[in-house]
Amino acid sequence: MADFRGPRIAMVGVGKVGAAATYSIIHKQIASEVLIYDINADYLDAQVQDLRDSTSFGISPRVRAATLKECGQCDVIVFTAGTNQKPGESRLALVQRNIGVIRDGFEQMKPFKEDAIIVVVTNPVDVMTYFAVQYSGLPANQVFGSGTVLDTTRLKDTIAQRAEVAPRDVHAYIVGEHGDSQTIAWSNMAIGGIPVDQVMPLNDEERSEIAEFIRFKADRLNKVKGETSWGVGACISNICTSVLLDERHILPISHISEEKGISYNRPALVGRRGIIRSFDLILNETEQASLDKSIAKLQGVVRTTENPGEAAATAPAS
Questions:
Q1: Same domain, 81 and 190
Q2: Within a domain: residue 55?
Q3: By the number of CB atoms within 10 A of the CB, which of 138, 215, 224, 276 ranks highest?
Q4: Residues 188, 192, 197, 202: is their CA dihedral positive or negative?
Q5: What is the pLDDT of residues 62-88, one digit of tens each?
C-alpha cells in the first residue's frame, strides 16, 4: 500500500452536503488522501465508490472509507454528521440530539491529532460549534463552524448582480447567527474597496428586501429540490483550502467568544493553525442592536441546552 504523507482530510458524515464537499475537495487537489466515515456502512460504501469514480481524470487524492479513530488523525476533520428535525419535535430536542452525535463521534475519534483542525457543519452550527469546542479537548482556535460563509457568498453574489460587477470585488460580511437572526454589516460593505453607497446607493426598503432574500434563500431552494448541497460544499472546500495551504483568508466563520460565552459568526483570519486572529466589526447603531439580539438568542439556546430542567421550569403552562 502506498505511504500517504501529504495532508489528509476526513469527512464525517457523507450525506448530500458531505458528498458535495468531498467532491469539491477531491477536485481542488489540496489533500493526498480523503477519508470518509458514515454510520450507514452500505451507504458509505456506495458513496466512496461513486466519489472514487470521479478521481480517474487528472491528479486526485486517494479516497477511502475509514473508522472514526482514523478520521481523528487527519489534518482537517469536517463534521457534517447529524439528524434532521422530526415532525412535532422541538428545536431544543434536535439540538440535544445533534450534540449527542458530536459528543459520541468525538469520543471515538480521540485522541485527535495534536494540530488537527475541526470544521463543524452540523446544524444549528453555532450551538454545535460551542459544544464541539468543549468536547474536542483541542484549543478553541482549532475548532470552528462553517457559519455564515455560505450566507455571505449569497450576499456577495446578489450585490454583484445588482452592481454588475464580479462577486470577488464585493467585500461584505454577515455576522451573528447562521439563521434567522443573522445581521448584514451594511456599514462595512464595499465594492472594489469603495463604500457600497458610493457605487450603488440602497434605500432601507431595498436593503430589507436583500436581507430577506438571503435569509430565506435556503428555504426556497429546499421546497423545490429538497436540500442545498453544492454551495455549502464549495464553501467547505474553500475553508479547507485556506487551512491546508495556509492561504490566510478572512472568513465569516462561527467561533468561540470567551466574553459572550457562545460561538457566533464574525470575520476571522484562517490558516494552517486554524483561527489566527478574530475581528469584531465596527457597526452602526442599528446593526449593533441586531447583532446583540442575535447573540442573546444564541446565549439563550446554549443556556437552555446546558440546563434543560431550567427551561422546562420556566415554560408557560399549556
A1: no
A2: yes
A3: 138
A4: negative
A5: 999 999 999 999 999 999 999 877 777
In this predicted model, what pLDDT tens digit does every residue of 141-153 receive, in sequence order?
Answer: 999 999 999 999 9
Q: Are residues 32 and 153 in the same domain?
A: no
* Contact status, residue 65 vs residue 10, Cβ threshold 8 Å: no
Same domain, 137 and 156: no
Sorting pLDDT into bands at 50, 70 and 90, what band is 316? very low
pLDDT of residue 31 exceeding 70: yes
Which of 42, 31, 32 lies closest to 65, judged by CA?
A: 42
User: 133 and 97, same structural domain?
Assistant: yes
CB 53 within 8 A of CB 25: no
Feature table: binding site: 13-18, 38, 98, 121-123
Q: Examine the fold and report which residue of 121, 145, 169 is the final residue of a domain before the chain moves on.
A: 145
Active-site positions read 178
Checking if the pLDDT of 113 tops 60, the result is yes
Whether 96 and 64 have beta carbons less than 8 Å apart is answered as no
Cα–Cα distance, 127 to 178 (Å, whole number): 10
The type of residue at 220 is R
Q: Are residues 126 and 60 in the same domain?
A: yes
Residue 148 is given by DSSP the state T
Residue 18 has pLDDT above 90, yes or no: yes
How many domains would you assign to the chain? 2
Binding site residue list for NAD(+): 13-18, 38, 98, 121-123
Identify the pLDDT of residue 229: 94
Whether 15 and 124 map to the same domain: the answer is yes
Cα–Cα distance for residue pair 267/144, rounded to 1 Å: 12
Task: From 110, 129, 145, give the residue that closes a domain.
Answer: 145
DSSP string, 27-81: HHT--SEEEEE-S-HHHHHHHHHHHHHTTSSSS--EEEE--HHHHTTSSEEEE--
Asked if the model's pLDDT at residue 309 lies above 70, the reply is no
| 125 lies in the same domain as 82 | yes
Are residue 135 and residue 184 in the same domain, yes or no? Answer: no
